[in-house]
User: Fold these one by one.
Assistant:
Number 1:
Amino acid sequence: MSEIGNVTGVFAASPQLVTTGYVAGNSAFIYGIDPSTYSNATNGLNIVSGSNLTSSAGLDVVLAKPLADGLGVGVGSVVTLGAEATGGANYTVVGVFDPGSTFGASARSAYVQLNNAQEIDNQTGKVTEIYVKATNPSGVGALATEIGSISTGIRAVTSASFTNAASTLSGTLTAFFTVIGLVALIAGGFGVINTMMMSITERTREIGTMRAIGASAGYVLKSFLTEAFMIGLVGGVAGILIGGIVVFVLPHLSGSGAAGGGGGGGPFGLFSGALTPALTLNDLGLSFVLGAAIGGLAGVYPAWRASRLDPAEALRHV
C-alpha cells in the first residue's frame, strides 16, 4: 500500500477488501474500507441518511438503501453482521447510501471499516484491491503500467477498461434482445398468416356467396386485410397489458420489494436485488404500431388468396 502511495503521479490511494457475508441473516457484499483515504481516492458514497464511516468508529456499518429498506432498518438500528447467516457481531447503522441501482451487488452492499471486514473474512492484513487516483488524468495509462510493475502480484486496471467492458456487454445484450424481438415478431407474423389461412379455408363458401351477390375482389381483399390488421392490433394490446402486469408485479417478487421482506431475495430466492423494469409511452406506441403493422403485412397473402377465389368453385365447397 505504501509503495503504491509513493509512486509519482499518485494523488491518493485507498485499500479495500471485498467479501461476502450476512447482514441480519441476509446475504450481502461486505466492503471493508479505510475511511480516512476512501473519499480522497474515490467519489465516496452518496449518503442519503446519516453519515459516512469515520476512522474512530468501532462496529459501525453503512448500508445500501435497497438493503436497508428490505431489512426495515435505518440510521441508529443495530444489525448482526458476519460470515455466517447466524451469529456475528452487532453493528450500528450510521448511514444509508444510494447505490444508484436497485439490482446487483451494489444494491446489497454494506460498508464497514477495513479491519472489521478482514476479521469477518479471516484475512487479517490483506486487501482485495486498492483504489488509486492520479494527479493527472491523462497519465492514467502510464501510471497503471508503473504500478503493475511494482510486484508480480499486482494487476493495475484503469476505469476506462471497465467502461469498455460495460459498453461491450451493453452492446451484446442489445443485440441479443433485438434478435429475440425479431424472432417474436416473425413468429407472430406466421401466427397471423396461419390464422387467416385457416379462416379462409373455413369460410370458403361465405366468400363464394359474397362474390356471387356482387362483392368485388377488392372488397374481399379489404375485408380480410382489415381482419388481419385487427388481429395484430389486439395482439399489441394484449402484449401491453401483459407487459404492464409484469412491470407492476416483478418489483414485488424481487429485491427489497419481495413479499417476504428480509432483504430482497424474492419469494423464491432467485434475485439479489430488485428488478424495476419501466414501461414508457414510447413503448406503448411502438407496441401498437408493430402489432398493427405485423398483422397487416402478414394478412396480405391470405387476403389476396381469398380475393382470388373463383365464386363458382367457392360455392361448391362444403
Note: Residues 255-273 have pLDDT under 50 and may be disordered.
Number 2:
Amino acid sequence: MAKRPTFFLSSTIYDFQDLRGAIKFTLESRGCRVLASEFNDFGGNLEQHSYEACLKSIEQADYFVLLVGSRVGGWYDESSRVSITQQEYRTAYERHRQGLLKIVTLVRSEVWQMREDRKALSRHLAQLDMSETERKMAQDYPSKFATDATFISEFLAEIGRNLETGQAVKTGGVKPTGNWIHRFSSFRDVHDVLNPLSFSGRTADEAAYAKALQHELLTVLGRFLIKIDETPRDYRQFLREHIANCPIERTDRFDDTFAIDAKKWQSFSTVMIHTLGRKLNAVVINDAIKSSLFLTYDRVSGSYTQTSAYEALAKLLDEIRMYNESANAENLSIIFEFSPKNIGRPKGNVRLPTMKLLILYGIAHRWVNIVSLSMALIVHLEGRDFEMPELMPFSPVKDMDDEISKEVVTASEARTALGI
C-alpha cells in the first residue's frame, strides 16, 4: 500500500492550539499521518519524559512543520536559553542535513513584522548617544504581543541560517538548505504551503476505491476457481505440473502435430474448458493503474515511486488483456475437436495440432498468473506486506522467454535511450 507521508507539528501549543488542530485535520483528510503531542494518537513512549518522547518521534517524520509565534514556550535548557520548540527544530535540522526529512517553517506575519521593527529599532539606537545597557533595555522592551522579542528574533535568524548563509557568501562555500520561512496571516496561507506536500495522500474516497479494487480482484479470482462439491478449488498447481510434464520444446514448435498422453490430455482439456465464455472485466483494475494506490512516498526526492504491488497490478492488467484476446471460441476449439466424443478414449498418445496446443498452453499460463497476482494483491489490500508471486513465463514454449527478452526493449532501457 502507499506509504503515507508523516508530518511532525512543532510549536508552542497554547497560542497555536486551534491552528494545530486545523492542520492535523486537513493533512489527515488528505491521507497523511500527523504527529502532534497534544493529541491522544501521538503515541509517545510513556517511559520517557514528554520532551524526550517528542524529540524521538521526529525520527518518524518525513516533514517537520515548525510554527513560530510570539511565545517562547517551555524551556528545554533554561540556563542556555534553549526552548523545547527550538530543541525540536535543532533535532529536525540534523535529520534534514542527513536527507531524512524536509523542514517547513511558518511564521505569523505580525511576528515577522515585529522582528523587522526590532531590527530597525536596533539600527536607530546604535546612532544615539546612550550607554549599552540603556540601548539593550530599549531594544528588548517587553510588549503585550511578545514578552521575549530578542529570543524570537534570534530563533528566526537561526531558522533562516543567516550566519551560515553569510559565511557561505563570503567564502564561496555551500549555502545551507531548509531555511525557507513562509509568513502567514490566515489558514489559507498555511494550506497553500502544505497542500502540495500532501496531494497524493490516502483519502477516505481512496480507501473506498481500494475496496472497489479488491472486490473486482475477488470477482476475477472467482472466474478461475472451479467449484467441486460446493468447494472452490484452485487448479494452478495442476496446470503447472501438466505443462512441466508435457512441455513443448523449442524444436517442437515447428512440427505440425505434438504427441501427448491421451489421459493427460483429457484431464488438461477438462480443466481448460472452464475458460470458455469467461471474458474478464477489469474496469477498476484498469483505472487503479493511474492512481496513487500502490505508490510509496520517497522522503529524499519528495515524490512517489512505484512499488512491487504497482508492478504486479500493471502485470495483472497485461495478463488479463492477453487472456481476453486469446481465450475465444476459435482458440479453444481444440478442446472439442479432440474430445472423447470425437476421438473416443485412445490408449497411449494422441497427436494434437502444435500451434493450437501452444495457444491453449498460453491461456493456461495466463490463468495461473492472473490467479497468483490477484491473490497477492487481495491480501495486500488487507494491509499485509506485498509479496510478488511466482509467475509462469510469457511464452508457452519451454525456455523460450530468454530469447524473447533479448529482443524486447524494457522500460528502463527506453529511459536510457531517451537520456532521462
Note: The domain at 6-198 is CATH 3.40.50 (Rossmann fold).
Number 3:
Amino acid sequence: MATLRIGLIGCGFNGRFHSRSIRNLIRAGLVGAEYVAVCDLEKTRAMAFAEAAGVEVVSNDPKEIIDSPKIDVVYICVPTADHKELVLRAAERGKHIFCEKPLATTLADVEDMVAAVESHQVKAGVGLILRHSPIITVLKSLTEDRTLGRLMTIVFRDDQFFPIQGHYDSDWRKDREIVGAGTLLEHSIHDIDVLRWLGGEVVELRASVRNFAGNEGVEDLAIAHLEFESGGQAQLISVWHSVFGRPSTRRLELFFENGLFTVDDDYLGPIQFQTHANNSQTLSGDEVWERYLALVGLDPRDFSETLGYTLEDYFFLTAASASRAPFPDFRVALEAHRVVDAAYRSAATGANAIRLA
C-alpha cells in the first residue's frame, strides 16, 4: 500500500480530533502515512497544531496545502460554507479528500462536489462517523435476522447543547451564511444517514422546524416523519438546547413485528432487545465491542475501546492507500443530503408531505 502524505485544513473542533487520530494511527503503525502539513486562517492556531503533531509545514492559505506536490490527501475540516471551493480545487489537483459533514450548505453544491470527485477519479470520504459506530454497526447486524419480520417504526431522539459554546466553541454555527441551516443539516445529517442505513430508502417525509434561540435561519428544533420504501416509518426529533451539563445524546428504538431494540448511546454501550416470546436481554458494552471487531475484521490487539475518531480515519486512510473506494463516500452523503433538503422543503410548506421517489 502507498504511503500517503496528509495535509489538514481547519484547526477547530473537528480538526483537533482528526489531527490526534492521524498521529495515533501513524504512531501505532496502523496506516501507511505521513502527517506533513496543517493549515488554518488563524496562523497561531495552525502553529500550535503543528507543534503538537511535529509537523513542519504550517500555513494560513488552504491553496498552498492543496496545490503542494508533497501532499496526497487533504483533510477539509473548515466551516461548511467553505467546503465546496476547497473540495473542487483538491479534486482538480488529483488529491484524495476527506471532508467533514455536512458536505455543503445546499443540495446543488453537494451534487457539484460529487460530480467533481467522480470526474477526477479521486478517493473522497465524508465525516459521517456513525457509519463506524460500534453500537450502531452491531445493532444493524442484529436487525438483519429475518425472523424479526418487517420493520414497523424507528423512534430517534438526538439532542445536544447548542454547539456554539463549551468544548465545541463553534461560534460560526449560529451564522446561516456559514452553516447553511441548523440542527437538522449541521448535526442530524448523521441521523438521517443512520435512518437510511437501518430503514432503507426514504420515499416520503413531512417535517417542521422551530427556532427558540433566535438565530435567524438556524433552527434548534427539527421534527421529521419519514416513510421507508419497505412500508416502515420513523420519527426523528433533533434538538439544540441550553442544558450545558448534558452531553450530546442519541436514543434509538426500533420496533419490528417480532422484536424491539433500544440503544442510548451513539458509540459504545449496551443494546437492549426483546424478540419473539423471549424475555428482555442485554448485550453489554464489552460484548458490543467484541462483536464489532469481529464484524469489521479488526484485531483487538490493535484497537482499544477509546478510539474516538480513529476508526473513521483508519478506514478512510487504509482505503485510500490501497486505491479502494472509501466508505462512507460522497455518494452516501448525497443521499442523506437529498432527504435533508426534502425535509426543509416540507417545513417551508407547513409540513406538507414531500415525495422522494
Note: The longest helix spans residues 330-348.
